[in-house]
Model the fold of this input.
Amino acid sequence: MSKSPPPAGRRPLGWAGLLLIPILLIACDRPKVDEYLRPLTLQTGTLTVVTRNIPTAYYYGPEGETGFEYDLVRALANDLGLKLKLIVAGSVSEMLAIMAGNRADLAAGGLTRTPERERCFTFGPDYYPVRQQLVYRRGMPHPHNFEELQKYEPLILARSSYVERLRELKKHYPGLHWRTTNDFSTDQLLEQVWEKELGLTVADSNILAINRRFYPELEIAFPLGPKQTLAWIINPRLSRLRHRLKKWFPEIIADGRWDEIRERYYSHVEFFDYVDIKVFTRRIRTLLPAYRPLFEKYGSRYRLPWTLLAAKAYQESHWNPLATSPTGVRGIMMLTETTAVEMGVENRLDPEQSIRGGAAYFRKLLDRVPAGYHGHDRWNVALAAYNVGLGHIYDARRLARQRGRNPNFWLTLKEVLPLLSQERYYKRLPYGYARGIEPVLYVTRVNNYREILEKQLTITARRRQHRKPTPALAQALPAKP
Done:
């Protein structure tokens, strides 16, 4: 994503101008609107948003542009009937400088509302709670309280809410000291802690929750304070946008879109099992290489992401081609005898036949998923159908409609599927009883394994190239033509 050019008739800031930015930010002085402000959102048909290339905001995933903040601002732009334009900033400092210079309509990049920032910027409604946490690597020296923290020097993000919190704490603990950086994101600093290149850093709870699945040795020393909230910064000239946002957030909460977006990015991060993740990452190195060509071959043949196919196989059998369950399902994809016959699999214990059959069957289910599901929801419903059967998915949809819920969201099915084990519900449904909690857990685990797998593959590739640590889920974006 290329950064937007300077406004017409203006030259880019030179080094002298850049040096003035911190002074402008500290004093909360802004350039004169008429001098710097380009035509705004509601006049141009474009919503210009500054964000960051980080896993919790915006990045390129297997299906293209994605991210929690990205999905939110895209939904906002669609509802306003505006075209979305992104400016990808390299740091929090740059985001704040862009907003101080009136170069964007709003900033959506995991920014915490703080008293210091509120003196300088106009914030929209709160939308996500977070808590600052001091992070170290398991087994490494670390403080247990603020008194002991005075003996350490964590490295943290410059101009972040972490800096503001430590300044407040320093009034009570004068020995506190820290270093700041604009060269790394919080995700990168967490990776450096995991790599033992850095002793301590500070991260918001949502950032740490995502990264702990990739770096399971990361541990919380203690929180730095009470919960805070994330909020967008709004261009002060856009009073109509500010008022619209006050109504818009309650609207997307009421119609289910908020829960759908949160579900997509944060539901599976709540599932954290240190031992399971350690075993999985070890098997990525030891077992996966033997089967990866088969996952890639049949993923391509049946138009499925090979990493999703591999993650599903791990959930089924832990990549054991001889796996057999008490119910009679067998092989690396744990096919039933009926499914094997349907898919032309003669030997379920043959890895290639099993992977081919599992991929073909999953594609068949995906094609039969009701048309109302889109994007990630469609994948999730197909995964659930693979586990519990498409008939029970139809029953869950019926039950959702009976309860006045929209059945075309995975989040809705996630809530009603467990009800299929209760007689008062299943006795009135065509396909009857099902252990409905199992497909819910199945989908969560498969998504979790897939994200961990993709992260580990990127880490491995980077190490082979001897690069400095960078966040794998938030790679540098190519410039668009």
In short: The two ends are 9 Å apart (CA to CA). Residues 1-27, 29-40, 469-481 have pLDDT under 50 and may be disordered. The domain at 132-226 is CATH 3.40.190.10 (D-Maltodextrin-Binding Protein; domain 2).
